[in-house]
Amino acid sequence: MYRTTFAIVDLSALAHNIRLLQGRLAPGVRLLVAVKADAYGHGVRPVVEVLRREGVHQVAVASLEEALQIRTFDKDIPILILGAVGVDECLVAAEYKLDVLYTDVCPLSDIPRLPKPLAMHIAIDTGMNRLGLKSTDAVLSVIEAMADREDIRLAGVCTHLACADASDLSHATRQVERLLEAVRAMGDKGCTPPLVHAANSAGLLRGDAWQFDMVRVGIAAYGYSPDPDVLPMPALRPVMHMYTSITRVADVRPGETIGYGATYTAQRSMRVATIAVGYADGFPRILSNRGVVRVRGCEVPIVGRVCMDQAMIDVSDVPAAQVGDFVTVFGIDPPSAWTASAWRALGPDNRANWLQETFALAANEEGRNVLSLSTVAPLAETIPYEILCQINRRVPKLYVEA
Ligand SMILES: Cc1ncc(COP(=O)(O)O)c(C=O)c1O
């Protein structure tokens, strides 16, 4: 490791969150965890390994490609593909034991007899207007058609809640009513779906009314409430923490400008530090002149535009800030062992291990603050989901079991 920009992925925090969520489930309810988009940016393989250990029933991905990636290291964990699939995908999904959603994108009549059975969950569009069948009649014709197919098994019926994290629950309640109406109509035809599922993280955190047979959580597993104001979950622990370091500190005189486009003009004498993170790492450019990071225990503002690989911060109020200081981009403050001299003294080959070990050792260090993505994301006019997914391959991920 030469560059000081990296993310720590704390797998014990993931395990902790899973246990916490399992504790919120009504008896017998299954837990599915969404691991699409490389496990919300955390790295799908280590995440799936923890989920398996923690007894998660199923994982979900967005596409066949993502499912096949999991099959390269896990031959049999149950996987549900949440995106729309066509005939080609159905053939491969059956071969690799992947559950798919039945949507109106690919009618059953288009799918040729499959050599291996395919498990399908009928997706009902109850109000999100994204995927699925829009009427109970359409659902009933599909179950009739499925009953004629030995190669296709009805594994469940589901919907996706658009507003389960809202303070006004009327939209979500209507969606659930429509789902139940379809389930009742199926029952009248003598068909009981093996699984009914609707709840995402927000749906789960609402209590057991919407849990049915299975919940599909994503963001809560990775440590964030979908909306901390509406559904506070202080016991969740963020799994990913991102750091960089100061590469330069300079004095800036009043009237001087900072960064591309000269969008920031110093109103007073300032100390400005450059940090080694930019939008090519997934650090949103929209944080220009409005984001914050943490240096030596203090929150400091981004000044000027975020560049592709660097950004500038105002450290005027942190007189001790110096080149080599570790900077919290988001997550828990760095352990006290992370000093510029310790980093320099280690060879590049030893740094990753050192970061992992010292992070784990500092798990119970007192007084470490958190720069939560729940704070950073609104400054970037987005949600933690998007920031996590965008931390890209240029940022090494170091896995820790604290
Ligand atoms: C169909 C479906 N179910 C569940 C989830 C998990 O949602 P969340 O991360 O809000 O828990 C998602 C994520 O977008 C999804 O698309």
UniProtKB/TrEMBL annotation:
Belongs to the alanine racemase family. Its EC number is 5.1.1.1. PROSITE patterns: ALANINE_RACEMASE. Its cofactor is pyridoxal 5'-phosphate. The lineage of its organism: Bacteria, Bacillati, Bacillota, Bacilli, Bacillales. Residues 239-400 form the Alanine racemase C-terminal domain. GO terms for biological process: D-alanine biosynthetic process. It catalyses: L-alanine = D-alanine. This is Alanine racemase.
